[in-house]
Design brief:
The chain is α+β, with helices and mostly antiparallel strands and 379 residues long. It folds into 3 domains: 9-120, Orthogonal Bundle (Butyryl-Coa Dehydrogenase, subunit A, domain 1), CATH 1.10.540.10; 124-231, Butyryl-CoA Dehydrogenase, subunit A, domain 2 (Beta Barrel), CATH 2.40.110; 235-377, Butyryl-CoA Dehydrogenase, subunit A, domain 3. The protein has helices spanning 9-26, 30-36, 41-49, 68-80, 88-102, 105-117, 179-182, 233-269, 281-309, 315-339, 350-358, 368-377, and strands at 122-125, 141-145, 148-158, 166-172, 183-189, 195-197, 212-222, 271-272, 275-276. The strands form 3 sheets. A 4-stranded antiparallel beta sheet has the order 2-3-7-6, with no helix packed on it. A hairpin with a 2-residue loop joins strand 8 (271-272) and strand 9. Helix 1 (9-26) packs parallel to helix 4 and helix 8 packs parallel to helix 10 (315-339). The two termini are 32 Å apart. 46% of the residues are buried. The chain binds flavin-adenine dinucleotide. Flavin-adenine dinucleotide is lined by residues 123-127, 132-133, 157-159, 203, 206, 211, 360, 363-364, 366-367, 369-370, 373.
């Protein structure tokens, strides 16, 4: 096994605390949260209290001022715990980074401390019923009216949407016809009149994740809520995308590693024809193939993480990681489920949940087909 070299002793201590948190405070609520289709609000406050939100945000804005390895640890431990409900990483490692990188000092002081404490839950609303992959085709408009914008439109599939107190909304503020110049990012408080939320959507997996629709009907928002500058939305989105895609690769490798671990345990204990399932040559070869592929994926992802730390991760490298690792995750988990036989189809087994939850990894964050487009453009 090629050793991982990214983490210090301090990171490992942090990992132990996160692991304990998931085991003691998240996993026991799984069934209840799956049924209600969202986690409890207090799980946000508790994560904030423990310093698990906004770990990479500077201390002056309420974050922990850590490097992105703390974010990596949080994502990996969530995957090892088999949790698909907590939307902490989208809040801390996507939304908070937009505010921190592009917000004014006032905006950062207004939002980041409350995001780090868990008092405020956030979402990012790009996708619309009519457009997902083609972001430049968004129809939601933010029309200028004095010092305000009036927002009209709707968004779909929004992670943390049901519980969110603020969403960064991707909206058209211009009519130049060049999609990339007409888009702005606007922070919209959920309390604003005309902003309504649908019920959490009924998904095939990730049941405790409150993915929902958001509707905007003549929502008046002050212009001071725009992030960066009007019309710069697309440029800002592009700057953050490499990291966001790597996040999916990170959780894909960790989730698949967890599936392999469960499968090793299961096949060592299950006896068929008087032998353990693990002793059949087919099982041993499958497990060996999966171990080998995951080891190779792990090294690539760790190298990408290193590049992120040095601010050198390229768009195509991140697209490669996202597409290849999420495809690998799907393949590994499917093979692992097969090795469980009928029990693999039963939700009480972690592999069954992993199988349904994993499917979205190939879709969100830009579909894997879009990733291949991005890679192809560099050839
Ligand atoms: C669980 C979940 C959570 C999500 N969370 C969020 C969120 O928090 N915020 C948010 O904004 N969005 C979110 N999304 C939306 C997600 O990012 C989109 O679903 C995704 O980008 C695809 O867009 P679409 O669904 O409109 O598919 P479409 O764009 O309609 O694509 C349909 C098919 O066409 C293919 N396709 C499209 N263009 C091309 C092309 N040029 N070449 C080849 N094939 C192509 C796609 O790969 C796909 O297979 C989430 C989705 C899910 C399932």
């Amino acid at each position: 096994m090629i050793p991982r070299t990214l983490f210090s002793a301090e990171h490992e201590d942090f990992r132990n605390s996160v692991r304990r948190f998931y085991a003691e405070e998240i996993v026991p609520h799984r069934e209840e949260w799956d049924a209600q289709q969202h986690i409890d609000r207090k799980a946000w406050n508790r994560a904030g209290e423990l310093g698990f939100l906004c770990t990479a945000i500077p201390e002056e804005f309420g974050g922990a001022g850590g490097d992105r390895l703390y974010s990596v640890i949080l994502m990996e431990e969530q995957s090892y715990a088999g949790d698909a409900g907590t939307g902490y990483s989208l809040h801390s490692d996507i939304v908070a980074h937009y505010v921190n990188n592009f917000g004014s000092k006032e905006q950062k002081l207004e939002w980041l401390p409350k995001m780090a404490s868990g008092e405020v839950v956030t979402a990012i609303a790009m996708t619309e019923p009519g457009t997902g992959s083609d972001l430049q085709g968004v129809k939601t408009t933010a029309v200028s009216d004095g010092d305000d914008y009036i927002i009209n439109g709707s968004k779909i599939f929004i992670t943390n949407g049901y519980l969110c107190d603020m969403a960064i909304v991707v909206a058209k503020t211009g009519n130049s016809g060049e999609g990339s110049k007409d888009i702005s990012l606007i922070m919209v408080e959920a309390s604003r009149e005309g902003f309504t939320k649908g019920k959490p959507l009924k998904k095939i997996g990730m049941h405790a994740q409150d993915t929902c629709e958001l509707f905007f009907k003549d929502v008046r928002v002050p212009k001071k809520n725009v992030l960066g500058r009007e019309g710069m939305g697309f440029v800002m989105l592009m700057q953050e995308l490499a990291w966001e895609r790597l996040m999916i690769a990170i959780t894909s490798i960790a989730g698949a590693e967890a599936a392999l671990k469960h499968t090793l345990e299961y096949t060592r204990n299950r006896k068929v024809f008087g032998k353990t399932v693990a002793s059949f040559q087919n099982t041993r070869f499958k497990l060996a193939e999966m171990k080998a592929e995951l080891a190779i994926g792990r090294v690539y992802v760790d190298r990408c993480i290193e590049l992120v730390l040095n601010k050198k991760l390229g768009v195509d490298d991140a697209a490669t990681a996202k597409y290849w690792c999420s495809d690998l995750m799907g393949k590994v988990i499917d093979q692992c489920l097969q090795l469980h036989g009928g029990y693999g189809y039963m939700l009480e087994y972690p592999i069954a949940r992993a199988w349904i939850d994993a499917r979205a990894q190939r879709i969100y964050g830009g579909t894997n087909e879009i990733m291949k487009e991005l890679i192809a453009r560099t050839l």
